[in-house]
Specification:
Elements: H1 2-8, H2 24-50, H3 61-73, H4 77-103, H5 112-132, H6 135-138, H7 141-156, H8 180-195, H9 199-203, H10 207-223, H11 235-242, H12 244-252, H13 266-279, H14 284-318, H15 331-334, E1 341-343, E2 349-351, E3 369-370, E4 389-390, H16 394-411, H17 422-429
Antiparallel strand pairs: 1-2, 2-4, 3-4
C-alpha cells in the first residue's frame, strides 16, 4: 500500500528543482516527499531482503539524488541516518540479486568471472559508504547494526536466511569456507554490541533493526555447528570465536533475574512478588527474550549431542584398535578363514582372498593379480566365481596362503618337509622362480 501511494504521488519520478532558491514552505514539502520516498524503499527492501522476497522498489539514480539533497538540506539527524541506512541497504539488495542470479545459473548467461567482478565492485562500494559515514552517525545503533550486518551478509549470505540451504545447492551458494571465519568475528562483534545495549536503547530499535538482529542470530547458530553444504568450514574454530552460548544466555536473561526479591519477612516477599507481577511488561523486548530463551534451549541440546559425539570419537582414538573392535572385520582374513590358495602349474601361489595388506611388505607393495582358475591335481580347485590373486610379497604369501596350502597338502597325502632348510621351504611355496636371491 505504501509503495502504491508513493507511485500515485509520483514521488519516484525525477523532477528538476533547485532547493536552494525555493521558499521555506515549498522546500519543506519537497523534503517531506524525499523522506517518504526513501523510507518506503527502506521498509520494503528490509522485508524483501529478510524473507527472500522479490523487491517492489529499486534503487535508481533519482533515489541517489534524493539521498544527496536530503543529506544536504535537512537539519534533522534522523534524515541523515535514513540516508546512510538506504545506501547500505542498496548494497545488500544488489548483492542479493547477484546471488539469486548465480543460484539460478541455468537461466543466466553471465560468466562466473563477470559475477566475481560484480561482487568485488559491490564490496568496494560498501567499503566506500562505510568510510564516508560521519563519525557522529557511525555510532548510532541502527547504523552500527546495518554496517556489521552488511559485512556478514557479503561473506555468508546463504546462511542468513530463514530457510536452511540444501546440500544439493552447494555449488550455487557462493560460500567461501576460508572467509566464514571472518563472518564469525563479525557476528560476535554484532552480538557483543547488542548485548551491551540498555533496555531503553533496545526499546528504541525499529522492525528493521530487529530483522537484522534475527538474521545474525540465525548466522551464529549455523556457524556453531557442522554444515553439510559447506564441509570445508571449521566449525570447532567457529564455536571458539563466536562463544554463542554465552551471548545467547546474556541476551535471553530477563531483567527480573538480577532482582532476588529477598525481604526480611515473608510478607515483604509476597508483596514484592505481587508488585513484580503487576509491573511486568509485555513489550517487544520481553517477547524477544522469550524467543531467545527457546533458541538457547535448542542450542544447548544440539551442543550436548555434538560434544558427546566428539568425546566418543576422542575416546575411541585413544584406545588400541584391537580393544575397541575396529579391527575385528580383518581378523578372519588374517587367520586364513574362507581363503583358497594353491600352487598352479606354473609354480605361482594363488589365493581367493580379496585382502592384500600392502603395509606388511618390507620390500614394496603387495600387488595382487588375478590369474586363471587352477584345476590341476596338485592344487585345490577354484570355483568359477572365485577370483584368485597372486602375491609377489613373501610375507603376504606366508600370512595369507600358507595355512591353506598346508591343509590342501595334508588332505592329498603330501609329505610336508621340515622347516629346517629355507631352500626347501621356498621350493614348497613355489617362490624360487620369483625370489632368486633367497
Amino acid at each position: 500500500m505504501a509503495v502504491d501511494i508513493v507511485r500515485e504521488l509520483k514521488l519516484d519520478e525525477e523532477t528538476r528543482m533547485d532547493l536552494a532558491t525555493m521558499p521555506p514552505e515549498i522546500k519543506a514539502a519537497k523534503l517531506q516527499g524525499f523522506r517518504a520516498y526513501l523510507s518506503c524503499f527502506y521498509h520494503s527492501s528490509i522485508y524483501a531482503w529478510s524473507w527472500t522476497k522479490s523487491y517492489t522498489m529499486r534503487y535508481t539514480p533519482w533515489m541517489a539524488k534524493c539521498c544527496n539533497m536530503l543529506e544536504q538540506y535537512s537539519d534533522l539527524e534522523q534524515d541523515h541516518i535514513l540516508v546512510w541506512l538506504v545506501r547500505l541497504q542498496h548494497v545488500l539488495n544488489e548483492f542479493e540479486e547477484l546471488r539469486r542470479i548465480h543460484k539460478n545459473h541455468h537461466a543466466s548467461n553471465q560468466s562466473n568471472h563477470h559475477k566475481q567482478l560484480i561482487q568485488a565492485g559491490l564490496e568496494a562500494q560498501l567499503r566506500d559508504f562505510q568510510a564516508r559515514i560521519p563519525s557522529h552517525l557511525s555510532t548510532k545503533p541502527s547504523v552500527v547494526m546495518a554496517s556489521l550486518n552488511a559485512d556478514a551478509f557479503i561473506v555468508a549470505a546463504p546462511l542468513m536466511q530463514t530457510m536452511r540451504p540444501r546440500p544439493e545447492d552447494a555449488t550455487a551458494l557462493m560460500i567461501d569456507p576460508s572467509k566464514l571465519q571472518s563472518a564469525a568475528y563479525t557476528a560476535r562483534t554484532f552480538l557483543d554490541y547488542v548485548s551491551n545495549l540498555s533496555p531503553t536503547q533496545m526499546s528504541y530499535l525499529c522492525g528493521a533493526d530487529f530483522a537484522r538482529f534475527i538474521m545474525v542470530i540465525i548466522l551464529s547458530y549455523r556457524l556453531a555447528f557442522p554444515m553439510s553444504f559447506c564441509p570445508g568450514y571449521d566449525y570447532s574454530q567457529g564455536r571458539k570465536i563466536l562463544d554463542f552460548g554465552n551471548y545467547i544466555t546474556k541476551l535471553s536473561s530477563s531483567d527480573d533475574d538480577d532482582d532476588d526479591g529477598s525481604d526480611s519477612t515473608s510478607g515483604g516477599a509476597v508483596a514484592n512478588d505481587g508488585a513484580r507481577k503487576a509491573t511486568k511488561k509485555a513489550d517487544v523486548v520481553s517477547a524477544l527474550k522469550v524467543v531467545l530463551g527457546s533458541v538457547k534451549a535448542s542450542f544447548e541440546k544440539k551442543s550436548a549431542v555434538l560434544e558427546a559425539a566428539a568425546e566418543e570419537h576422542n575416546r575411541r582414538a585413544r584406545l588400541c584398535p584391537m580393544f575397541d573392535g575396529s579391527l575385528e572385520q580383518y581378523l578372519p582374513q588374517w587367520e586364513g578363514r574362507g581363503q583358497q590358495g594353491s600352487s598352479n602349474s606354473n609354480g605361482n601361489i594363488t589365493s581367493g582372498s580379496s585382502y592384500a595388506p600392502s603395509s606388511h611388505s618390507g620390500s614394496g607393495t603387495c600387488a595382487p593379480h588375478h590369474v586363471a582358475p587352477s584345476t590341476t591335481g596338485e592344487g585345490v580347485d577354484f570355483p568359477e566365481s572365485a577370483k584368485p590373486m597372486l602375491f609377489h610379497d613373501l610375507w603376504a604369501t606366508m600370512t595369507m596362503g600358507w595355512a591353506t596350502d598346508l591343509d590342501a597338502g595334508l588332505q592329498q597325502g603330501v609329505e610336508i618337509p621340515r622347516m629346517d632348510d629355507v631352500e626347501e621351504y621356498v621350493d614348497l611355496m613355489g617362490m624360487r622362480g620369483q625370489y632368486h636371491g633367497l
